[in-house]
Structures are given as structure tokens and as C-alpha cells.
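[Q] Does anyone have a clean C-alpha cell version of this?
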Amino acid sequence: MKNRKIDMFILILILLSSSLFIHPRTKKNIKELPLKYRKWLEEEVVYIITPKEKEVFLQLETDRERELFIKAFWKQRDPTPGTPENEFKEEHYRRIRYANLWFGRGTPTPGWKTDMGRIYIILGEPKSIERYENLTQIYPTIVWFYQGMSKYGLPDAFYVVFFKKYGAGDYELYSPIKDGPQSLLVHYLGDPADYLSAYRQLESIQPQLAKVSLSLIPGESMPTLAPSIASEILLSNIEVKPQKAIKDLYAEKLLKYKDIVEVEYTANYIDNDNLVTIIRDNSGICYVHYLIEPKRLSVNFFSNKYYTTLEISGKLSDLKGRTIYQFTKYIDIKFDEKQRKKIQNLPFCFQDMFPLVEGNYKFNLLVKNTVSKEFTSIEKDLIVPSFKSPVEMTSLILAHHIKKIPQTFKNKPFKIEDIQIYPSPRNDFTKKDKLFIFFQIPNITPELTERGIVLFEFFKDKQEFLKIEKEIKSYPQKGKFLEEISLENFPPGRYKLKVSILSPEKKEILVEQTFFSVSPVDYIPRPFIYSELSPPSNSPLIYYIIGGQYFNQKKYEKAKFYLEKAYKLKPNNLKFAEGLCRILIIFKEYEKAKKILFPFTKTKQKDLNFYKTLGQICQKLKQYEEAIKYFEKYLSYYGTNLEVLNSIGHCYLAMGKRDEAIKVWEKSLQLEPNQKHIQKLIASIKGKK
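[A] Here you go.
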């Protein structure tokens, strides 16, 4: 069957923290670069590279990294990424060749380096050219006319003027303010600061050029015949025009993830919109709810089906750099032609959730499209409160729609009991939408519940637009707040929403605020949503995850509590059994741990990692022969492991078998020679002989 790659979803509308703990890189001096890359940076792309891109490029350490960056650099500028040609790159190098051929003639300056060459490389071919090169009273002057560049923040029509100062040298870029009409005149005898006098003299010689000498923008109102400030702004904007045309976030992402994602992904970063928030459920467990809308989702077509697979990798690290929780999952997305037509013009949104214990974290999410080899990411700082005294309030979640759905035994992202919330990561709404506001105060006091007030304040252009005050007791669910506001009377614009919790005496206790926008359009395309379901909060898997997070935080009492709950609910599950045994080892409950793990040696298991744990337990129990048997069982399946090899050596030594211990440790040293403690052990044993 025919394989064809299709860009399915183009989104409407993005992310970096240090949570992967990549060491800061030293910025290289351009002169330290190999000649090939110095030329690329200083000549070939000098006018179009953004400051951020240049900064990242100078932090790259190898030629392989630089080649990946250059590939990504051109890919970001390719107007037709689905085709083999890169029209932007081809046009750029054509302009450089043209500039070198025509603008450096008769001077030692290379064409690309001249003012005319620079402007030509940035703006391309002018619509028309006027030459004033053979007038005895005017220095050689050339006027280029451009049109149709308003999408880059430039006027729809404008001139660019070049002249030879004092009639010699290269053509220089002309500025009405810095140079003025007097600089174009061969015999100007008036005051150098008298623009009007110079203009009158130039007008008598060449009226059209006189107009351009004061303003580069056709039709600009000039009541005082003074040089145009707007023209100076135009010249500044021309220089940064290439930077406005590109979103250079990809460069930061490439630097951050180049050692983590595979080579074929590195140059293919795509932007996204995202939302990450904390919601506490009725059991008291806090969940991270997140959604991510990539700018593009590419899929394959095969056997009348459209499909792709997303690889989702998440990592939570605490402020000490310890990994507290990480996960990887693969999401298969498939749909037929009928479904494709229904969703082809909609954004794609992936939603998921996971439990997280109290603490401060850095959250990294890496999403890889295995079909297109594109990747995107989220980096956020997260705080999960303990919700003990004093009272604490969660962040505000704004939604354009809610839906009442039947209660199920599964958890679903952005679902609170029987209400499904549909938030937008951009907080964008239309006048036809309802604005739904959700937040929680899980540890709200009885007094605040009975007598407290919630105040909603809306601000537009820093002016108060609307104020709504409600009693907290009017909300049916304690500690949960869901408010509905009609937007039909909200003029289009950007708003700030401030939600305050007031005491009975009207004293402000808690405050949260966020921003949202009301669009002038009547319709905003809402995404096609793919949601991952999560087990209920009382499931063994949730207890296991929470226990593991406490274990990684070294909060062993709490870890033991949850890992025991997971095991008791499903004692035949090896993962839950091994998780509990790891914490039992911490508490030196070795006999109990062995009793839990030993039965799994009698059943067929796919994961034999537990033999390492069982070996460690037997070693602690001084059952050395049995420990060696389990360690060797582990090695026969997983191959060489230094920790396990060294443990076997310790078991042999404890049994008095010194030669066997030395033999094992010498094998360990062959794999990793820099083990001083093992070297000392061997030397000590041999010395006693």
C-alpha cells in the first residue's frame, strides 16, 4: 500500500527550566569555531540569524551538534516542509550570490558585506529602482522601492536609499535624520543642520528625490518638512525583519534535548500550547492534570487508516535534583477517513493525569511523534501543597465548556466528580461562550464555609470592568468552587480575573488571578481531545506510585504505608511485591521481605529484576549461597552489573571463599577499573595471604 505522510492538524497558536539538570555550557568565541562554521555564522546567515539562535550555536560543542543545528535552522524557515526543496534556503543563497556579483564591484568590500548587499539579502529584489548617478549637483544616489511586506511589520510601501558619501567609496544606506538632504548635494553651502534649506535646494534639482530625502514612506504627512522619524523606525525594522519572521524557541529546545532525543528528532522541534494544574480529589490525593496541544500532528496513511504513535515521557524532579517520579507511555492514535474529515481542521489535544505527593518540583514532559520524528515539550515548576493549615487555594482553571457525565470507576483528566471541564491552554473565548471558573480550597474551615465570601473581579485595560460577590455557603460542594459567567457583554480584549476569598469581616485571606481574552470572532475551533484514563484513587497502582514518590523523597514511613496498601490489594503482583520489599529492606524487615518475594521464584515471570532484590535480602540474612544463586540468576538474564558482581564478591568473602571473591572483583575491575574500594579489598585479602 502507498505510504504518504500528511500534516493533519495545524494549531492556532508554548516552553524551559533546568529540570533535566544539564550543566550550563560555556559560550564559545566565534574565532574558536572551525572555519566552516565561522563562515556560516559570520557571512552566510549573519543577517537572518536571531540573537537567541546565535547564542545557542555558540554553546554547541561538536561538529555533529552544529550540523544538527544548521539543519534545524533551515527547517524552521522552510515554507513547504513537506517537500524536498527548501525554497527559503535556495532564495537566500541566490541573494548572497547576486550580492557578491553586483554590489562589491570596484571596491575591496565583498558584495554581501556592503549596505546594498545586506538590504538585498534581507529584503530581496526591489519592485523598482531609480538611479541618480550622473547629475553634477547630486552625489550618486540609488532609490529602491519595495511593496507588500506589511506581514513583517513594515509599511506596505517604502523606499530604501543608497548614496556615495562625498561621491566616493561604496554606496551607503541613507537616513533622512542622520544624513538629511544636505548629504546628497555636491555644493550645499547652507547650515548643515538646516534640513529645510537643503530640501529646497534639492527640490529645485530633482523634486522626486527631494521628497524621498525627508521620508522613505510614500504619502507620509510632512507638515513641517522635517526628516521623518517613521523612516528611522522603518530602517531599524528592516534590520530585524528576518528575526520577526521566525520563532526561535526551537533553538533552546535543541540545546536542551539534543543529548536526550534521538538524532532524527533533534532538528524537528515544534511549538505547543499547554496547561498544567493541580486538582485534589475526594480521597485527599493530589493529581497533576495536564494537556498539550502541539502546533502540528503528522500522521501516516496505510490500509485506509490514518495513524501515528506518540511517545510520552514525563519526569518530576525535586529542588535537590532527585528524580521523584518518571513515566513513559505510548499512545496509538488511529482514525478512518470519515473521522479525518470531521477533525482535520481542528487542533489536536492530548490530556493526561498522574498522582503527585506534596512538594516543590520541576516537571518535564517530552512528546515524540514516532511517525514524523518531531518532538515537543513542557517545562514547568510545580508546587503541590500539603493542604494543612493555614488554608490554601489552588490555581484558577478557566474553561469554555463543562459537561455532566456519569460517575465511573476511572479517573479522567480535568474531570471533577461528575463534571468534565474543557479548558483552553490559551484562555481564549468568544462573546458567545460561557466562562467557567474552577478552583479548590480543600482545607477550608467551617467558619469560612459558613460566613466567608468569594469575590470575582474583572479588569480590562487596568480598569475595573465587573465585580461579583457571593457567599461561600452558596456553593453546594465544600471546598470546591465552580462559577459560570456569561461573556455576551464583554467587549473583545484582554482581561485580568482576580478571585479573592474574604473573611466575614471582608478581610482578604486568599487571592488567585489569571488572564483571559475575548476574541472579536464568533467562533474559535476547539480541539479534538485524546484523554488517557487513570485508575481510581483507591487502586493499588495509585498507591504504588505514591509510595514510590515518598520512597524517592526518603520519606520512608509514608512510603511504607502506601506500598503496603498496594501489596495487600494485589499480593500476586510482582511489581507491588518488590516495591514493598525495597522499603522493608530500609526497615531491616528482611524475613518479611523474603517471605513476600520468594513465591515469585516458583512462577514464570517476564521481569527478573526481583532476583537482584531477593539476593540483597538473602545477603542481609547471611544466607550467602542462596544470595549468590539469585544474583547469578539475575546476571544470566540481564548481563553484567557492577553492583551485583560486587555483592557476589562480598558473599564469597563472608563465606571465607577469598579466591572466589578476588576472581569476581577482578572481573568487576576489568569493567570499571576506577573502583578504589574494591582495589583496597583485593589488596587487603592478598596481603593477609
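[Q] Thanks! Anything notable?
[A] DSSP finds 21 helices and 24 strands in the chain.
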